[in-house]
Write a structure and sequence with these properties.
Layout lengths: L1 H16 L5 E4 L3 E6 L4 E9 L32 E5 L10 H6 L6 E5 H4 L2 H12 L5 E8 L16 E8 L4 E8 L11 E2 L10
Antiparallel strand pairs: 1-2, 2-3, 3-6, 4-5, 6-7, 7-8, 8-9
Length: about 200
Protein backbone atom coordinates (compact mmCIF):
# COMPACT_ATOMS: atom_id res chain seq x y z
CA UNK A 1 0.00 0.00 0.00
CA UNK A 2 2.80 2.40 0.89
CA UNK A 3 4.51 1.76 -2.48
CA UNK A 4 1.23 2.43 -4.28
CA UNK A 5 0.84 5.78 -2.52
CA UNK A 6 4.38 6.81 -3.41
CA UNK A 7 3.91 5.84 -7.04
CA UNK A 8 0.55 7.61 -7.20
CA UNK A 9 1.99 10.83 -5.77
CA UNK A 10 4.90 10.67 -8.21
CA UNK A 11 2.59 10.17 -11.17
CA UNK A 12 0.31 13.00 -10.02
CA UNK A 13 3.26 15.37 -9.72
CA UNK A 14 4.54 14.32 -13.14
CA UNK A 15 1.19 14.93 -14.77
CA UNK A 16 0.90 18.34 -13.13
CA UNK A 17 4.43 19.24 -14.25
CA UNK A 18 3.45 18.54 -17.84
CA UNK A 19 0.79 21.24 -17.79
CA UNK A 20 1.88 24.35 -19.66
CA UNK A 21 1.71 27.91 -18.34
CA UNK A 22 0.69 29.22 -21.75
CA UNK A 23 -0.31 27.72 -25.07
CA UNK A 24 -0.97 29.89 -28.13
CA UNK A 25 -3.86 28.64 -30.28
CA UNK A 26 -5.15 30.35 -33.41
CA UNK A 27 -8.53 29.42 -34.85
CA UNK A 28 -10.48 31.02 -37.68
CA UNK A 29 -12.69 32.69 -35.05
CA UNK A 30 -10.35 33.71 -32.21
CA UNK A 31 -6.76 33.64 -31.00
CA UNK A 32 -6.11 32.59 -27.42
CA UNK A 33 -3.24 32.16 -25.01
CA UNK A 34 -4.43 29.43 -22.66
CA UNK A 35 -2.97 28.33 -19.32
CA UNK A 36 -3.24 24.61 -18.72
CA UNK A 37 -2.07 25.21 -15.14
CA UNK A 38 -4.96 27.61 -14.49
CA UNK A 39 -7.36 25.84 -16.86
CA UNK A 40 -8.38 29.30 -18.06
CA UNK A 41 -7.53 31.63 -20.96
CA UNK A 42 -4.98 34.35 -20.26
CA UNK A 43 -6.20 36.44 -23.16
CA UNK A 44 -8.56 36.02 -26.10
CA UNK A 45 -8.64 38.13 -29.25
CA UNK A 46 -11.37 38.24 -31.91
CA UNK A 47 -12.68 40.49 -34.67
CA UNK A 48 -16.30 41.61 -34.93
CA UNK A 49 -17.35 42.54 -38.47
CA UNK A 50 -21.16 42.66 -38.59
CA UNK A 51 -21.66 39.04 -39.62
CA UNK A 52 -25.24 38.00 -40.46
CA UNK A 53 -27.08 35.66 -38.12
CA UNK A 54 -27.75 32.49 -40.10
CA UNK A 55 -27.66 29.72 -37.48
CA UNK A 56 -28.94 29.17 -33.96
CA UNK A 57 -26.93 27.80 -31.04
CA UNK A 58 -29.83 25.54 -30.01
CA UNK A 59 -28.59 23.02 -27.43
CA UNK A 60 -24.94 23.32 -28.45
CA UNK A 61 -22.58 22.70 -25.54
CA UNK A 62 -18.93 23.30 -24.78
CA UNK A 63 -16.38 20.66 -25.82
CA UNK A 64 -12.81 19.83 -24.81
CA UNK A 65 -9.79 19.93 -27.12
CA UNK A 66 -7.60 16.86 -27.57
CA UNK A 67 -4.28 18.70 -27.46
CA UNK A 68 -4.82 21.30 -24.70
CA UNK A 69 -5.73 20.62 -21.07
CA UNK A 70 -8.71 22.88 -20.29
CA UNK A 71 -11.50 23.21 -17.80
CA UNK A 72 -14.49 20.94 -18.32
CA UNK A 73 -18.13 20.43 -17.33
CA UNK A 74 -17.23 19.35 -13.79
CA UNK A 75 -15.68 22.74 -13.00
CA UNK A 76 -19.01 24.50 -13.50
CA UNK A 77 -21.29 22.18 -11.54
CA UNK A 78 -22.96 23.19 -8.28
CA UNK A 79 -21.52 26.71 -8.17
CA UNK A 80 -22.35 30.26 -9.30
CA UNK A 81 -20.01 30.29 -12.30
CA UNK A 82 -21.02 30.28 -15.95
CA UNK A 83 -19.08 29.05 -18.94
CA UNK A 84 -18.67 32.59 -20.18
CA UNK A 85 -17.86 32.98 -23.86
CA UNK A 86 -14.77 35.00 -24.75
CA UNK A 87 -15.54 35.32 -28.45
CA UNK A 88 -19.36 35.58 -28.30
CA UNK A 89 -21.53 32.92 -29.90
CA UNK A 90 -23.94 35.55 -31.26
CA UNK A 91 -21.09 37.40 -33.00
CA UNK A 92 -20.11 34.24 -34.91
CA UNK A 93 -23.53 32.86 -35.81
CA UNK A 94 -22.99 33.40 -39.55
CA UNK A 95 -22.29 29.70 -40.08
CA UNK A 96 -22.30 26.50 -38.07
CA UNK A 97 -18.52 26.02 -38.10
CA UNK A 98 -17.83 29.48 -36.67
CA UNK A 99 -20.53 29.10 -34.05
CA UNK A 100 -19.22 25.71 -32.95
CA UNK A 101 -15.70 27.05 -32.49
CA UNK A 102 -16.95 29.53 -29.89
CA UNK A 103 -18.01 26.54 -27.76
CA UNK A 104 -14.47 25.25 -27.34
CA UNK A 105 -13.36 25.25 -23.69
CA UNK A 106 -10.42 27.31 -24.95
CA UNK A 107 -12.97 30.11 -25.27
CA UNK A 108 -14.66 29.52 -21.90
CA UNK A 109 -14.03 31.93 -19.02
CA UNK A 110 -15.18 31.05 -15.51
CA UNK A 111 -17.49 34.00 -14.89
CA UNK A 112 -19.86 34.91 -12.12
CA UNK A 113 -23.28 34.10 -13.56
CA UNK A 114 -24.63 37.57 -12.81
CA UNK A 115 -21.75 39.20 -14.66
CA UNK A 116 -21.95 36.87 -17.65
CA UNK A 117 -25.71 37.26 -18.04
CA UNK A 118 -25.70 40.95 -17.12
CA UNK A 119 -23.31 43.75 -17.98
CA UNK A 120 -20.87 41.49 -19.86
CA UNK A 121 -23.70 40.36 -22.15
CA UNK A 122 -24.93 43.92 -22.60
CA UNK A 123 -21.48 45.09 -23.69
CA UNK A 124 -21.34 42.23 -26.21
CA UNK A 125 -24.64 43.46 -27.62
CA UNK A 126 -23.18 46.96 -27.86
CA UNK A 127 -20.17 45.59 -29.74
CA UNK A 128 -22.54 44.20 -32.38
CA UNK A 129 -24.12 47.64 -32.71
CA UNK A 130 -20.71 49.24 -33.03
CA UNK A 131 -19.64 46.82 -35.76
CA UNK A 132 -22.62 47.91 -37.87
CA UNK A 133 -20.57 50.95 -38.83
CA UNK A 134 -16.98 49.70 -38.64
CA UNK A 135 -15.03 46.54 -37.80
CA UNK A 136 -13.75 46.24 -34.25
CA UNK A 137 -11.05 44.08 -32.69
CA UNK A 138 -11.62 42.91 -29.13
CA UNK A 139 -9.04 41.68 -26.62
CA UNK A 140 -10.13 40.08 -23.35
CA UNK A 141 -7.59 39.72 -20.54
CA UNK A 142 -8.10 37.65 -17.39
CA UNK A 143 -6.46 38.30 -14.03
CA UNK A 144 -6.17 36.15 -10.91
CA UNK A 145 -5.75 36.69 -7.17
CA UNK A 146 -2.59 35.68 -5.31
CA UNK A 147 -2.93 33.08 -3.97
CA UNK A 148 -5.04 31.82 -6.85
CA UNK A 149 -8.59 30.82 -6.01
CA UNK A 150 -9.88 27.61 -7.58
CA UNK A 151 -13.05 25.58 -7.65
CA UNK A 152 -12.71 22.15 -5.97
CA UNK A 153 -12.23 20.43 -9.34
CA UNK A 154 -9.16 22.55 -10.13
CA UNK A 155 -10.01 25.40 -12.49
CA UNK A 156 -8.81 28.84 -11.41
CA UNK A 157 -11.32 31.63 -10.81
CA UNK A 158 -10.47 34.99 -12.43
CA UNK A 159 -10.56 37.93 -10.04
CA UNK A 160 -11.35 40.43 -12.78
CA UNK A 161 -11.50 40.82 -16.55
CA UNK A 162 -10.51 43.58 -18.94
CA UNK A 163 -12.03 44.14 -22.36
CA UNK A 164 -10.09 46.29 -24.84
CA UNK A 165 -11.97 47.29 -28.01
CA UNK A 166 -10.25 48.79 -31.04
CA UNK A 167 -12.29 50.72 -33.61
CA UNK A 168 -10.47 50.04 -36.84
CA UNK A 169 -11.72 53.07 -38.80
CA UNK A 170 -11.59 55.66 -36.02
CA UNK A 171 -8.34 54.10 -34.75
CA UNK A 172 -9.30 54.51 -31.11
CA UNK A 173 -9.57 52.17 -28.13
CA UNK A 174 -12.34 51.79 -25.57
CA UNK A 175 -11.45 49.78 -22.48
CA UNK A 176 -13.52 48.36 -19.63
CA UNK A 177 -12.74 46.45 -16.42
CA UNK A 178 -15.11 44.03 -14.69
CA UNK A 179 -14.78 42.46 -11.26
CA UNK A 180 -15.76 38.80 -11.50
CA UNK A 181 -18.82 39.22 -9.31
CA UNK A 182 -22.39 40.46 -9.48
CA UNK A 183 -22.07 43.91 -11.14
CA UNK A 184 -22.82 47.00 -9.10
CA UNK A 185 -22.47 49.36 -12.06
CA UNK A 186 -23.40 49.46 -15.73
CA UNK A 187 -20.70 48.62 -18.27
CA UNK A 188 -20.67 52.28 -19.37
CA UNK A 189 -19.46 53.21 -15.89
CA UNK A 190 -16.62 50.68 -15.95
CA UNK A 191 -14.42 52.44 -18.49
CA UNK A 192 -10.69 52.54 -17.85
CA UNK A 193 -7.82 54.54 -19.34
CA UNK A 194 -6.47 52.72 -22.40
CA UNK A 195 -2.73 52.26 -22.70
CA UNK A 196 -1.99 51.45 -26.38
CA UNK A 197 1.28 49.75 -25.39
CA UNK A 198 -0.70 47.05 -23.55
CA UNK A 199 -2.90 46.14 -26.50
CA UNK A 200 -0.35 44.72 -28.91
CA UNK A 201 -0.57 41.00 -28.29
CA UNK A 202 0.90 38.50 -30.75
Amino acid sequence: MRLFVIVFVFLSQSLFAQKRDSVLVETTVFTVVYSEVLEQPIWIKYRSINRPTNVNRGHMGFYKESNVHTSDDADYKANLFDKGHGAPAATFSDNLDNLKQTFSYLNSIMQDQYLNRGEWRLLEEQERRWDDTEPITVIIKTFFDSPIKRVPTGAAIPSHLEKHIYFETLKIWKCFVFLNQKPKYEWRDLGMICDPKKHKLK
